[in-house]
Amino acid sequence: MHRRRRTALTVSAALLAGAPLLTACGGEAHPGAAALVGGDRIEVSTLQGQVAAVRDAQRDAPDADQLIDNSGQLGRAKLHGLIFDRVLDRATRDAGVTVNRNEIQQMRKAAVAQSGGEERLRTAMLQQSWVAPDQIDAVLREQVQLTKLARALGADLQQPEGQQAVGAALSKASKALKVDVNPRYGTWNDEQTQLAGYRAPWISQVTKPAGAGPETGA
After folding, report:
1. Domain-embedded: residue 105
2. Helix 118-129 / helix 136-153 crossing angle, nearest 10 deg
3. pTM to 2 decimals?
């Protein structure tokens, strides 16, 4: 329950191989949807776009083959991230938390400084977290949200009790959104706020240093 994506950087999971149309989601036909979250569709095309952005960046890297080989669960990771983003948005909204652009920029400056420069940050995000350059700010936004959510709940993410408090808020938001995933990609676990069978260490996102590698699912 206490595992989510790694630092400012984590995202992992299963490669999207030609994703077909969704034939059943909640017992109804929703062609083209990878998941429904709060009644809103996450289109297969959106998921494919996220995967393609990472693959393009990987192919431009010196160690392209290795990067691609090591990210075989990329599609599943990206779907997890797209769903979790919406769950986190709901949880922070319920807690009265907002995030502004300046806070994200400050988080980026800190990540750049900790990584040793913008280029090193981009390289680390791509290699260790499967995040394309244009996806970095979205990941940093989540880090800000998680930090502020914990603060609003009076929770210390360095302590098990604090992690449980934030986890409970995320679980409550997840249940309220009635997440419904295309069976092709698995099922969503409200208690763990992640795709079943995929380990996504969300707590690590705010408790470990930028640049640390991801934890991939089993």
Report:
1. yes
2. 80
3. 0.79
